Amino acid sequence: MKHIISVLVENKSGVLAKVAGLFSRRGFNIESLAVGPTEDIAISRITLVADAEEHSIEQITKQLYKLINVIKIQELDPANIVERELLLIKVSADSRTRPEILEIVSIFRANIVDVGKKTLMIEITGNNSKVRALEDLLKPFGILELVRTGKIACTRGSKA
Amino acid sequence: MGKITCAQMLMRCLKKEGVEVIFGIPGGVMIPVYDALLESDIRHILVRHEQCAAHAADGYARATGRTGVCMATSGPGATNLVTGIANAYMDSIPIVAITGQVARSKIGTDAFQEADTTGITAPITKHNYLIKNPEELPFVVKEAFYIASTGRPGPVLIDIPVDVSTEMIDEKKINETMKLPGYKPTIKGNKKQIKEAASRIYSSKRPVVFAGGGVVASNASRELRKLVKTIEAPVITSLLGKGCYPETDDLSLGMAGMHGAKYANITFTETDLIIAIGVRFDDRVTGKLSEFAKNICVIHIDIDPAEIGKNVAVSVPVVGDAKIVMEDLEKVYREIEAKKGKNKRNDWLKRVEMLKKQYPLKYDRDSGAMKPGYIIEKIYELTEGEAIICTEVGQNQMWASQYYKFKEPRRLITSGGLGTMGFGFPAAIGAKVGMPDKTVIDIAGDGSIQMVSQEMATATSNNIPVKIMLLNNGYLGMVRQWQEFFWEKRYSHTGIYNCVDFVKLVEAYGGAGIRVTKKEEVEGAIREALKIDKLVLVDFLIEREENVFPMVAPGSTIDKMIEEDR
Known about the structure:
Distance between the termini of chain A: 24 Å
Number of strands of chain A: 9
Helix content of chain B: 25-40%
Largest sheet of chain B: 6 strands, parallel
Number of strands of chain B: 20
Mean pLDDT of chain B: 96
Oligomer: heterodimer
CATH superfamily of the largest domain in chain B: Thiamin diphosphate (ThDP)-binding fold, Pyr/PP domains
CATH topology of the largest domain in chain B: Rossmann fold
Radius of gyration of chain A: 19 Å
Strand order of the largest sheet of chain B: 3-2-4-5-7-6
Mean pLDDT of chain A: 92
Helix content of chain A: 25-40%
Shape of chain B: globular
Shape of chain A: elongated
């Protein structure tokens, strides 16, 4: 099962390596990872997605807590969060296919961010199922390059 | 406003932390630090290999309960520390390792003697630091000692670039405070959980206490004894827990596990409730994990939440410091007794007593041969059980733990988790430095001692009179035993017979050597060794293919033990 874990850490060099190292050392695979400073510049947030059993996730959470630079860990409940990832997709487009691609892009409320002679670059943000749907629809046109960020997520409502 | 170098500041900070001794070896990038050491009254023990600096600091910490300190230079100095640090990490021993690093501008350039020390040691330290800003030094040292010695103790490493050591710093900076927003060990156990634990214990018919290194780390021996007296339950310890409950007491069952007493192992399979305190259910204790403590109640008290439920399913977890939790638990238990009357478990206690009689630890006492059990028992007798016993790893370690009865904690110093051959001798040096009035003995094997025999120079040149009792069988004995039992006696590369004259070796270093070839000579040799006030090695030439019994085959359940057939 997939788990989204949000880890607040001290914003210091070497901390990300310690977190990532812990995962590999204890035999866990990180599926996606996003990191950046929070509203407090001394603190960074690492959002990571890991595929593991319930027992394993409990163990990895406890192990993470033991890292001195880790301040707080939260496993996010998928039912109660807004989650986003951002994709940049470069797709083949000629005069014949361009209108069709533009139509798909507009339905998905995605953006065209670069237009080449034979390509279009599309930017999309959304949850996993939305971006995957767009990816599937664009595939037949020929995806030349795809870049995605790790997933980030925020709990709904006033609870931090 | 006075300015001093960071190296001088380091010495002042160490002094402030109460450091009295450092084990180490200097090197190029450590010259500024060692220069500052000259002006300090902190003692330095120059070892002959950095690994032994870490082991000595570890032995010092285990014997005294204070944080041990070791020092090494960059690159190979630091990588040589690695085994010693990993050893301390596995056994949760508080040490602070200080390493030199190449100048900041050279980091990452593969400079001479450069190694990524913080990267290499991240998985084997509780925490580590690379000091890039000289201003950080005072509070980093403070944090390092605080982290190493609190919560679940462990090694902390501080890596200091040479140009940081020489930089000037305001001497008032020594008063800088720590900044550890992410480090708050849970000390007090949850009240509800403790209540639940007490009532489960009260209603248990066949409870057993299983105490480990956590009890020693928390200096909770007295609290454990009080708790055991109140509940009246038998006590099993792990290897690292030895001595936290007196092994001479009727309720003590000694150690369980692969080479534990059979009565302890059977008690583990017959109990209906385990009160586990400061243990981590290592595979050497549990045997076949899926069958261990199956369908019974396990109460697990530990300061490290990650240990609870890691190997064995737990019914009542209590996160907290063993000392404080046991104190509370004992109180709550007495409250229940006051209300409901004492729960006498005479049948269970009788059963355990009977098991002890039925399956004693045994070796052939009538044999004319010089049995390891006999040697250890003689050492026990002649030291009146008051010595600090260090061991190497393997058969010597198991014989020592089987036949020396530990009455107090911090008396057995042994590498439990990592199983590091060559640990015992440098650890004995560290222990003797910390406890100069105690007799310190390293019970060694001929395989282990050859990994660290250069430290004989450390012992003699610093007048550290430890006693090496060498059980010499010309084999890497424990591996040979496995080859005999499980690999059809195919002794692949375990024979090391007749390659060293250990008596001459120790004499070459300025120590005293005694060779013992007959049973009748054992007592006299030990007496003499205890009298000599310098490094002594007693070379006991024991039977070559002596085995450690009883034994649980790897992967087997712990009640099925291989015993010597006679």
